[in-house]
Amino acid sequence: MIGYVTLGTNDRERGARFYDALLADFGAGRMMENEQFIAWGSPGGGPGIGLTHPFDGAAATVGNGVMVALEAKDREQVDRLHRIALENGGTDEGAPGERWPGFYAAYFRDPDGNKLNAFKMG
What we know:
This protein is of the alpha/beta class. Helix content is 21%, strand content 39%. It has a single domain, classed as 2,3-Dihydroxybiphenyl 1,2-Dioxygenase, domain 1, CATH 3.10.180.10. It has two helices and eight strands. The strands form two sheets. Strands 1-4-3-2 form a four-stranded mixed beta sheet, with helices on one face. Strands 5-8-7-6 form a four-stranded mixed beta sheet, covered by helices on one side. It is globular. Residues 1-121 form the VOC domain.
C-alpha cells in the first residue's frame, strides 16, 4: 500500500550520509536524486524513503507522533541498524529489546529529529 515515505531535512548532505549508511544494510541505495530530493530503494522493490528540503522553503520540522518503521530480517539486523543510526548522527529513542512477546524493536531519530524504528516480529 505505501510506495514511499518522504522526510524533511534542513541539511541534505548530513541527512544523506545518515540514510546512505542506514539503508545500505538493507541493500538499498540511492535511486533518484536532484538538488532538493534523494530517494532510496529499488524500482518495484517495496516502499522507499525520500529526504527533501521542504518545497515551501520553510524549515523542516518533525511531526509529533509520526514514525517510520523499518522491518528487519532478524533481531541482529535490528541491533545493527540501531548502532549504525547512532554512529551516523542519530540519537537513541530506545535501545534494542523485546517490547512484548514476539516484537523486538529499537527506536532512534535521524540527524533532523525524524523518528524511526527497526523491528522484527516473531
